[in-house]
Design a protein that fits this description.
Layout (H helix, E strand, L loop, with lengths): L1 H33 L7 H20 L11 H26 L4 H23 L18 E2 L9 H5 L1 E2 L1 H19 L1 H11 L1 H6 L4 H27 L11 H11 L4 H23 L6 H16 L19
Helix pairs in contact: 1-6, 1-9, 1-10, 1-11, 2-3, 2-4, 2-9, 2-10, 3-4, 3-9, 6-7, 10-11, 10-12, 11-12
Length: 322
């Protein structure tokens, strides 16, 4: 037990890293659902962005196609991944806002499209290795250690010795909270998610607010997706997101549709995963399959309402008819 307690700071550092895509996915859902649009397509947006980011990284960052963008390959790949998520967010917005498609069905369609599309593109352009004419992956973003701050006991290694997307997640946590709860934009967003008729009567364009927030949500899901390929693993694997998009939605619900709450819930899921990795490395007699189940069991408990009742925005999932 004492050995485990001594390992807690290191486990927390791992938890922050592992929680990065979960938190970003939760913020994606936050912007969408605070504006009244349910987005269960976060998983598909993550997966699609992970693939496009990796494709661009391998074919552009390595100079395989002879482009002048090679020195900026990884940042450019990250941008493409984010734009992929934004594009799928725009598709979800058009289907649900313009054509009034059921929001659950639209999100499910995006997930199915992502699974099939990424699988096909992976087979065509990434599978087979160099023998099949595929460029070698350029690797991942390097960690950036912030001087002085990283030397702070306990907190320093947890928050100030990370890679760029993890830093971005921490910054977005604060920005998302500030934007949603302390700006006119956030007030309008919450208004169209709670009572769109009243917002419309005050001159707020409900459709525009929903479109923009869903696209922002898609971009955040894209940022979560590129974490897998450009910051964590350095290569794309079929279905590599492993349900993180759905866990993100559970974190959003657990966090009661707030940025800080979503971050806290994501950190709990991340810590559970860090602990199961630690126990496996320590030769725990518990079968690894059961340890791998922990984050998903927590997700089911949250979605079943066993952690406490969470009330979504009143107009969440309800199409607006002017």
């Amino acid at each position: 037990m004492i050995e485990f307690i001594l390992e807690v700071p290191r486990l927390l550092a791992v938890a922050v890293v592992v929680a990065t895509p979960l938190a970003l996915g939760a913020y994606s859902g936050l912007f969408c659902e605070r504006a009244g649009v349910v987005n269960i397509g976060i998983e598909g947006m993550m997966l699609s962005s992970a693939l496009t980011g990796q494709l661009v990284a391998q074919y552009v960052a390595t100079g395989w196609i002879g482009t002048p963008l090679e020195p900026y390959g990884l940042p450019f790949a990250a941008l493409v991944g984010i734009l992929t998520g934004a594009a799928l967010g725009a598709l979800h917005a058009v289907l649900t806002i313009r054509f009034k498609v059921d929001q659950i069905i639209s999100g499910t369609a995006i997930n199915i499209l992502a699974v099939g599309g990424t699988g096909a593109l992976y087979t065509l352009y990434l599978a087979g290795g160099t023998a099949a004419g595929v460029p070698i992956s350029p690797g991942v973003f390097e960690a950036i250690r912030i001087p002085f701050l990283a030397d702070i006991p306990i907190l320093g290694p947890i928050f100030f010795d990370n890679k760029p997307i993890t830093y971005a997640m921490l910054i977005i946590t604060v920005l998302a909270h500030f934007v949603i709860f302390h700006t006119p934009w956030g007030l309008r967003t919450r208004a169209v998610g709670e009572k769109p008729e009243a917002a419309d009567s005050l001159g707020i364009n409900v459709y525009t607010m929903r479109y923009i927030n869903v696209i922002i949500g898609g971009a955040l899901a894209g940022l979560a997706g590129i974490w897998f390929t450009l910051e964590d693993i350095g290569t794309f694997n079929v279905l590599m997101t492993g349900g993180r998009g759905f866990i993100s939605l559970a974190a959003l619900i657990f966090g009661k549709w707030t940025a800080f709450g979503g971050f806290g819930a994501s950190l709990i899921f991340g810590f559970a995963q860090a602990v199961q990795i630690y126990l496996q490395n320590q030769g725990s007699p518990i079968p690894p399959q059961f340890l791998n189940m922990v984050p998903y069991v927590l997700t089911m408990l949250v979605l079943a309402g066993l952690i406490g009742r969470a009330v979504p925005p009143a107009a969440d999932g309800v199409p607006y008819e002017k």
